[in-house]
Write a structure and sequence with these properties.
CATH topology of the largest domain: Arc Repressor Mutant, subunit A
Structural class: mainly alpha
Keywords: Membrane, Transmembrane, Transmembrane helix
CATH superfamily of the largest domain: Winged helix-like DNA-binding domain superfamily/Winged helix DNA-binding domain
Number of strands: 5
Strand order of the largest sheet: 3-5-4
CATH class of the largest domain: Mainly Alpha
Helix content: 55-70%
Number of domains: 2
Number of helices: 9
Length: about 190
């Protein structure tokens, strides 16, 4: 039991050291902010300071939310709202789409690794349909029309491609799902063309 307490004490000391030297991660700051905020709220409650409690609780909540932004897909409060996770996926998808793949830049070892991924003929057609499209993101309905499959069959195909890391999905502004090809997916198609 004392070894466990020693390790916890060492970890706390390291976290506080990183915070003081301004090298702390968001996780370090979060692990300090939560108990500190709770302790401050308890003290203010015991003193009967309701207004101060509200201010501290609001400030703490906003700080904790900003420390964990990568975990939110949507954030709103006090006139501020943002969709975060999907924005990063959209930017990455557009960067992949707008970047020309140079076969000379991709080594044979990478092609060999990508070529070992088991992809069915229909999955390959779905990837090619996304790559050849003028759109960066394709819906199940659009892909179903291109591939002459049902929407549910396309969703199953795309789920398989996502698991293999060849495609990625986002939720559109209309709350529907759309897919894009990943850099690995483009490299896979390029390796199949070699």
């Amino acid at each position: 039991m004392s070894i466990q307490k020693e390790r916890q004490s060492e970890r706390q000391t390291k976290v506080l050291g990183r915070i003081c030297s301004f090298t702390a991660s968001n996780d370090d700051l979060f692990s300090v902010l939560v108990p500190l905020s709770f302790l401050l709220l308890v003290v203010l409650a015991l003193l009967g300071k309701a207004a101060e409690m509200a201010v501290v609780a609001g400030f703490s909540a906003v700080c904790m939310a900003f420390l964990r932004l990568e975990n939110f897909s949507e954030f709103s409060g006090v006139g501020f709202s943002a969709k975060l996770r999907d924005v990063a996926k959209k930017v990455e998808a557009m960067a992949v789409r707008e970047t020309e793949v140079d076969a000379d830049d991709v080594s044979d070892a990478q092609f060999g690794k990508i070529a070992t991924i088991q992809v069915s003929a229909q999955e390959r057609e779905a990837l090619q349909a996304i790559e050849d499209s003028p759109f960066t993101f394709r819906t199940a309905t659009g892909l179903a029309q291109n591939l002459e499959l049902s929407v549910s069959a396309v969703r199953q195909l795309m789920a398989g491609l996502e698991e293999k890391g060849l495609a990625s999905q986002i939720v559109t502004s209309r709350r529907s799902i759309a897919w894009n090809i990943t850099a690995q997916g483009r490299n896979y198609l390029l390796s199949m063309a070699k």
